Hints:
Shape of chain A: elongated
Distance between the termini of chain B: 65 Å
CATH architecture of the largest domain in chain B: 3-Layer(bba) Sandwich
Oligomer: heterotrimer
Order of helices and strands of chain A: EEHEEEEEHHHHHHHH
Number of helices of chain B: 15
Radius of gyration of chain B: 23 Å
Shape of chain B: globular
Helix content of chain B: 25-40%
Number of strands of chain B: 22
CATH class of the largest domain in chain B: Alpha Beta
CATH superfamily of the largest domain in chain B: FAD/NAD(P)-binding domain
Strand content of chain A: 5-15%
Number of domains of chain A: 2
CATH topology of the largest domain in chain A: Fumarate Reductase Iron-sulfur Protein, Chain B, domain 2
CATH architecture of the largest domain in chain A: Orthogonal Bundle
Structural class of chain A: alpha+beta
Largest sheet of chain B: 7 strands, mixed
Amino acid sequence: xxxxxxxxxxxxxxxxxxxxxxxxxxxxxxxxxxLDALEQIKAEQDSSVSYRWSCRMAICxxxxxxxxxxxxxxxxxxxxxxxKGLTLAxxxxxxxxxxxxxxxxxxxxxxxxxxxxxIAEAAPKGKPYRQTPAQLARYKQFSNCINCGLCxxxxxxxxxKPDFLGPAAxxxxxxxxxxxxxxxxxxxxxxxxxxxxxxGCTFVGYCSTVCPKGVDPAAAVNQGKIASTxxxxxxxxxxxxxxxx
Amino acid sequence: xxSLAKTITTDVxxxxxxxxxxxxxxxxxxxxxxxxxxxxSKVYPMRSHTVAAxxxxxxxxxxxxxxxxxxxxxxxxxxxxxxxxxxxYFVKHAFDELVQLEHWGCPWSRQPSGDVxxxxxxxxxxxxxxxxxxxxxxxxxxxxFQTSLKYxxxxxxxxxxxxxxxxxxxxxxxxxxxxxxxxxxxxxxxxSVILATGGAGRLYQFNTNGGIVTGDGMALAYRHGVALRDxxxxxxxxxxxxxxxxxxxxACRGEGGILLNKDGYRYLQDYGLGPETPPGQxxxxxxxxxxxxxxxxxxxxxxxxxxxxxxxxxxxVHLDLRHLGQRYLLERLPxxxxxxxxxxxxxxxxxxxxxxxxxxxxxxxxxxxxxCATSIRGLYAVGECASVGLHGANRLGSNSLTELLVFGxxxxxxAARLASxxxxxxxxxxxxxxxxxxLAPLQQLHNSQGxxxxxxxxxxxxxxxxxxxxxxxxxxGLKETLTCLAQLKQRYQxxxxxxxxxxxxTDLLHALxxxxxxxxxxxxxxxxxERKESRGAHQRQExxxxxxxxxxxxxxxxxxxxxxxxxxxxxxxxxxxxxxxxERLYGGxxxxxxxxxxxxPTDNPPKESR
Amino acid sequence: MSRKPYQPPMPASWWLxxxxxxxxxxxxxxxxxxxxxxxxxxxxxxxLGQGEASWLxxxxxxxxxxxxxxxxxxxxxxxFHAWTFFVLFPQVxxxxxxxxxxxxxxxxxxxxxxxxxxxxxxxxxxxxxxAHQ
Lengths: 245, 610, 133
């Protein structure tokens, strides 16, 4: 089996004050993923190497890492595509807890902040809402986010200003706002209208490039800007009501 | 010396953030909004393995379908080892739970009219499987997780690892856990504890499961004296990718995919599942839409007779979807197209997908009654880790996602009721004694100067289970695996950790998971050894044991933990009060218009989506 | 507690790290030559108000190679910016027909067709002026 070099960023909070690099040589074939390589390193070379993983099939969102500086899912990135070796580092812009593991709590706080659940006054009794395939198609793409956090590592605005709600959270807000069953848009607009909402985005667009699920969060955020503008205009013409900003 | 870093007090503690755990946490909150509900999970909830379920969730939906039919399919699918009053409750509540999820925002696939779309599934007589493209589990899990954020009563402990239960005299007082990020030991006192920790598929080499599916909750309940029921029934999903075992959903066949051996022949017709149906025109309960146990067994026979296909990563057969066409595949099975391209470099539009059976689901689990209560007061179990009595010897695809919802709600409600009753909290001295006891093995692991590492042990465990406790079993093979397990347990005592740190010590967690797995594996093998018949997913090779034997084995196996090797097996009667055992028939063997031997006049529901 | 999260710094040179960021900065930088172009226009308006001498002086200034070069750059920058804008447009304003979205290439082509129309219209307009003189 051919071998290749993996340069891994290590950080062990109990020993290190800053991350450093460590080199490993791993065997690989056509099907070896970055995650398989990490498992090999942990099993055979250094069992203190830590990383998150679970499903191995690009749906649980655990194994996001920077591969040669690009945010990727470890389970869906293959060594065959890096014959000259590669570097692995934890996702950018997040605090590093240990080795490839980052602190996702800020990301989760942003997700919760936008009220990512259906808000409706009364559901039909004992039966589903009607929702046509066309109505479903309006938001379906934005419901495919696996919360892997790659888009936050791609977003320099999140790196510069961690309070920015960020691509995935705004895409999720947009998903519910577009859902024909939802009536909670006005409750979400306050967050979206703020400087940490859609207007924190400068449309770098790289979030959509790295998204492993084709969610296109940049589209959601920038469609959100239009919604936010319209919301502002509407609020302007409503006398006696405070704007939701 | 290990010591507690903090103590948390709560009313209802849910362990596990998958579909069952989230549903029960929400149900507990709704039952009594004043309760403090704590959701503890070793991964962020949306990473839980519910996320990987693809095909769908079953409930009687169409006007021409009936609860009786869903009941009959489930009971005959279980080879009559399901508890029938549980099945009855399940089919009656399935539809309402799927509707509830719809009201919470789940993006179910739709008909042009705007009604929910249903698809065919293996072993189901009628189309009754709700789906969200081919990422149903993903959408269910995310819908539940996002909905749970609405409930301020739910406090989450993300990335906490369950170390032990605090049990004294058949009463559960809470748990001990590791805060993975800091490595701190945390005691959580709770009036009721719900285990929703998932299955144990990682005990096998080839499996569709995520790395977290290691049987933790099963092992802990088992060690504290709760029986593990029907553990010998391990479901092989007929269509996993070679090498990785990644799941290729049954919905592929529900939508019309066909299985071919190396001669391009649809071999299922030779295994009592025929007659052959035209490609792209699937018929319920026939050919590719037979139940999972039968299909996996058919693969095994084809392999024995040299009719499987050589693939760089082992023997395979072909799942052919090409006749469905690109547009349909991208609409109904987009994730399958993505997976096949990424992991075996096959475009299902142009070539058949190589597949092989892979361990998918543990039908058995922690014994509970119909209210999800275990034999320990204050301890509940739900979902794949539990055996509420729904699946018997073989689970039908798309029944388990619904199970999470129906029984998740029951477990949450029951746990909340108990927690709402006045009760005597445990004395501090008792809790401290229990904690010291629970910490002893961990202390030993930390201090160990042994030479064993968990990785080779885990590999041997997985290989031995595959070898001796696979699709077909024999006494010799099972005994060999049991011996291997006993040796592995010995070696486990000599385990040494390769990471002495506290923060995110995944080396320690994997070692603990291996310890859990060894106990669960023993229960599986012992039950398999003592079930001297063939039923559902449990198939014995020895002459005289290759058929179902209702006389002696129309019973649940109960495995009890013992400190010496092996498990102690007892037998429990099966509830067959509504439909007496009959032969399981699929394909053309099935009488036309049969409604099985069911006697119970269940009403057809007026629920239809037209 | 053995948590000690390390917050990686975000250096001022972050945008040099990746081609996607450099491309983004280039797009944003198109504003610089455009500022110069607007300055030129304002200067022209001012000169027009000051009488013929001033206007001729302005025209002479416009002919200088460096001014020509900068305005040429501004033209390229505005075309480049238009291109990036057109490519992003379908993301921001997707047009839906039933359950299908209009393909992005169609929307991008339509926008370029619009540009071409405007150029032709201007051409015609300017040509018309020539005919009057």
